Amino acid sequence: VGVVSMISVPVEGLAVIFCLWLVVEEATLVALSMAVFSLAIAHAGGRRVEAAKRKQGSCADDRIRILAEVLYGIKVVKANGWVSRFSDRILALATQESRHAIRSKFL
To answer: What confidence category does residue 16 fall into, taking pLDDT thresholds of 50, 70 and 90?
Structure first.
């Protein structure tokens, strides 16, 4: 079944393109070029979304790591008055993570 599909699918595709050429002639080339262009755009967009999601995940990991550190050492953080430092770092990482999330939604 696999070998037959590997041979029959491209042959069927070429047959369809040939039949389309017989009917609409030059418009077939326009349709094929649009299809190739659309595939290229979709591939490039997918890669950009993947990169943005990877950055967002990295930011989330950093934020969670710092939150875990704060929670494990909350007594030391409060005793030394470091709450504002850690909250500023956590807020900055959360903002960066949100930026990456928004960017990936618009891609």
So the answer is: very high
Q: CA torsion 79→85→90→95, rounded to 10°?
A: 160
Question: Whole-angstrom Cα distance, residue 107 to residue 7?
Answer: 36
Residue in 70, 90, 67 with CA at minimum distance from that of residue 80: 70
Dist. CA 15–CA 33, nearest whole Å? 17
pTM assigned to the model: 0.57
What is the distance in angstroms between the CA of the first residue and the CA of the last residue of the chain?
39
Helices 27-72 and 2-24 meet at what angle, rounded to 10? 130
**Nearest-angstrom CA–CA distance, 103 and 107:** 6
Tokens representing 13 are 């595709």
User: Cα separation of 102 and 54, whole Å?
Assistant: 13
Over the chain, what is the mean pLDDT? 88
**d(Cα 64, Cα 70) in Å, to the nearest integer?**
10
Token digits of residue 90? 């956590």
